[in-house]
Amino acid sequence: MLYDVLFHTDSSLTEVSLFARTLPKPKAVFKRKPFFNGRLPIFNKSNTIHPQVEIKTENDRKYAKKYNENRATSKDKEISIIDLDKVEPPLNFLYEKLTLVTSFSQNHSREGLGFIGSAQQQMPNKTIIVYDLGLNEHSANQIMSFCNVQLRRFPFESYPAHLKTLKTYGFKPTIINLVLNEFGVIYYGDSSIRFKKPLSELLPDCVHHHGFLGQIRCFDPKIPRKAKYGCYHDYGFTKKEMYDKIGVNKTEYHNANFSSPAFSGGLMLVINSSSVQWKIMRPWLKCALDVTCIAPDGANLRNHRFDQSALSLIAFKNMRGEWTLENDPTPHHDTVVSVLRRSNGAKWKPKSCS
């Protein structure tokens, strides 16, 4: 099936349009009151969970049964929707479904070993999916030998030609959407991601924000990087054509008074809620598959941030006010996950099971 169950194209693979799906369209974004105390999820009486043990309460079982029944009778059986806007699932249920995903080509294969090794250390029983963006045979065989790792070749032939140019980064929203619909809860990380703690710690933050938890680098594009408390914002590194395609006024975005969060594109915890699908994933994927949106003429890393710019603009347009300086989950996120670019991941010693 070309693209995935959410999109179809004509035979030229140039036009992208949405199916008329039965997925409920969420109402306006609302603010939840925290349903947990402190930062630790309440998995059991001691507020702890061992990464090798999935604790199943009666409430977990009832929710899982209802979820499976609803999915079995749904017209969209291929889509694993967990609708947080209707009911907050047990955290154990979410953690059980959580799947780890990364993607890299041969030039990042050594770095990617650290993603795998650190994930195995912190979450030994979790499935790790690696999308092959151009690995040689030796690296592919090595990755397939690691415990709980699936290697999947990305089907470039089924997508618009610009996805083959990896520096347009159109493959990333595409992969995220594919696995999110398949598993319902995923953590996507670039090859440079390293896990310091189990991701169970981050689930309450993710649920509190309708199913999307990313790393926010900056809230206000007016703060210069060289200022004492400067930060990295993509406002000046986003081509005007992308603003127009997504439908965001560039001046309004610039003057939004700490309401323009700049998300990193390479690390995020995502739950497949209807809000995430309608407000983030569908418009993000639509942009990724349109070369004039994701990679306008003249775009390069000196003037444009591709998937990252698109994600930030879409979050501003569709979920403005959801993330603020007061409720920013990034500091907590950074205690669980770190980024080590251009590192040799072999020192994390991924475990082989073959």
TrEMBL record:
UniProt source species: Holothuria leucospilota
Record-linked InterPro entries: DUF1647 (IPR012444)
This protein's name: Uncharacterized protein
